[in-house]
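Teaching soon. Got one?

===
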Amino acid sequence: MDNLVIEHNDELVMKLLRYFISEKNYNPIVIKGIQGEIWLENLDEDYKIIRIVSNYIHNNEQLEFDLFKTKKLMKMIKKKTFSFRMNALSIFVNLNDSVKLDDYAEDKIDIAKINDADDLNKYNFIIDSFPDIRKKMNFKEKGLDLFARLTGDIYIKNEGDSKMNEDVFTIKRPTITYTLIILNIIIYILTSMFGLIDNFAVNRFYITHGEAYRLFTGMFLHANLFHLIFNCYALYIIGMQLESFLGKWKYLAVYILSGLAGSCLSIFMNAGYSVGASGAIFGLLGSLVYFGYHYRVYLETVVKSQIIPLIIINLLIGLMPGIDNWAHIGGLIGGIFATMAVGVKYKSTTFEMVNGIILYLIFVIFLLYMTFSGILFN
């Protein structure tokens, strides 16, 4: 068994797979009807899609059909992953020598013919994107030992990914959500008993004359019992999921920052009173969209079929008289920026989080500056 011989092309494919999965965090894509090729995805890399093709391509016509098929599948993946730009790298390990790749210059698809690992150095576009690829494909092991090494590394990477996904998606007790619901109920009872709602509601005049605390307190007030029940129910449904995904303190930060952003856009656009948790709740919806984008492999269908339609429907309902839709829109935008700032576990980079902080501050500070300067829409 120690002298087990692995076919040359199979060994090359395994080395490429090991590199892209273990070293570059690409994930396999399951595509029905595809045989003899492996599709990998990582939207954080220059090449969003890597194709490793072991099918024998024996003439130009077959290669042209392969490229046509690839472009169609890329369009499908682009829609499913909410991607605006998608480049692919097709690596052929079994291409007839008579097929000349120089004859093909496909937009957004680079093509490489690899007979062995050294051939990678022939393609500047590969070396520029993956400068360590040749070094990482060099192994001392042979035969069964090499096969065990390659499959073992891939297994360890996949097992680690599974543990991270389990950590993120395992449902936890939504303590913060329960606390926020109870707090909203208590504050509603107190303000109803003592008639204090006007003293703490969001209102442009009072906020610009020193009562800035209203930007915060307004998100915990409700106009009537129906308003309270509707918002608490929405908070329960959305919050219990998002709190589990983000973690308690990140979730709380997103809730508060979304509510503040909603209040800021509200006073910029409206001169009247505004109360309610709906700005913060719209922020949670925006947060779910941002989180779902990072975990689109698992949540793509939910985001497209449930969350986005829910946002659209509620924004349309918000056009009715008496509803402060600007607070909803502000909360939605604030929720996306706030989630970007606090980060999505195992996915967000420091660069992303810094950008999120900057975007949130620009959004809120701009609205406050315009409001306090008297440059308003009404």
